[in-house]
Specification:
Elements: H1 2-11, H2 21-28, E1 42-43, E2 57-58, H3 62-84
Parallel strand pairs: 1-2
C-alpha cells in the first residue's frame, strides 16, 4: 500500500529519520536553507502515533490550520487513488517515469 511505502521511506510521523527524503537531500547539500522560515514537525492536531510530543509543533494560526487540514485531505485522496491503481510500488517502472 502507498501509506506503508511512505512510512518505510521515512516520511511517517515518528520524528527525525535519517532515511527521509529531506534528510537525504540535506546530506547531499548541508548548506541548504529553506527559502522561507518554516516550523519543524508541524501538526494541526496532536498526533496519536508520536511517542515524544515535545518534538511536535502545534499550529496556532487559523489559516495555517485550515490549509494543513486541506492538504492532508488532498494527500490522503491522492494516496487512495494511487493505491487503487496498483500504486507506483506495484509496477516495474521507476517512479520518475510517472512524472513526465
Amino acid at each position: 500500500m502507498a501509506i506503508e511505502g511512505i512510512v518505510e521511506q521515512g516520511e511517517g510521523a515518528s520524528g527525525d529519520n535519517e532515511d527521509s527524503h529531506y534528510d537525504q537531500m540535506l546530506a547531499e547539500d548541508p548548506s541548504f536553507v529553506p527559502g522561507r522560515p518554516v516550523v519543524s514537525n508541524p501538526y494541526f492536531i496532536l498526533p496519536q502515533d508520536v511517542g515524544n510530543l515535545s518534538s511536535v509543533n502545534l499550529l496556532e494560526n487559523r489559516l495555517s490550520v485550515a490549509i494543513s487540514n486541506l492538504f492532508d485531505g488532498c494527500y490522503e485522496l491522492v494516496m487512495q487513488i494511487d493505491d487503487a491503481h496498483g500504486g507506483i510500488r506495484g509496477t516495474n517502472r521507476p517512479a520518475g517515469e510517472y512524472l513526465h
